[in-house]
Amino acid sequence: xxxxxxxxxxxxxxxxxxxxxxxxxxxxxxxxxxxxxxxxxxxxxxxxxxxxxxxxxxxxxxxxxxxxxxxxxxxxxxxxxxxxxxxxxxxxxxxxxxxxxxxxxxxxxxxxxxxxxxxxxxxxxxxxxxxxxxxxxxxxxxxxxxxxxxxxxxxxxx
Length: 158
Known about the structure:
With 158 residues, this protein is of the alpha+beta class. The chain contains 3 helices and 3 strands. The chain has helices spanning 2-10, 14-59, 85-97, and strands at 106-112, 126-135, 146-155. The longest helix has 46 residues, at 14-59.
């Protein structure tokens, strides 16, 4: 009997500590899982915004009234916005409407002429949109920032 009383006295509060450690472990696991889900969602939004930029570029070539890109070097009568601002706006607008704001994203729009020569935005020319965005963890907890990259390509059709 004396042995039992000594053992019980030394284990006083052990169940509470085990419960505390279990709850902390489960909470960190749940937060880590949620952070991973948010990271995957952010990457999907980034990839879709690059696709949206390509979609904008392929329908706003030299045959469009709102030409966006380098234009056609052989046809000086068509004026285009060579700053590619329309494509960049399409990328950021899509990302902002999807809940993932990317104001600090690095957006690169590249037009190419498949026949060689100067870049163009006439039908048949190719366009590639690259987006890089720094994902900052939502919960923090010492997790590092991650730079996500997405690329999409297409052929100007209009």
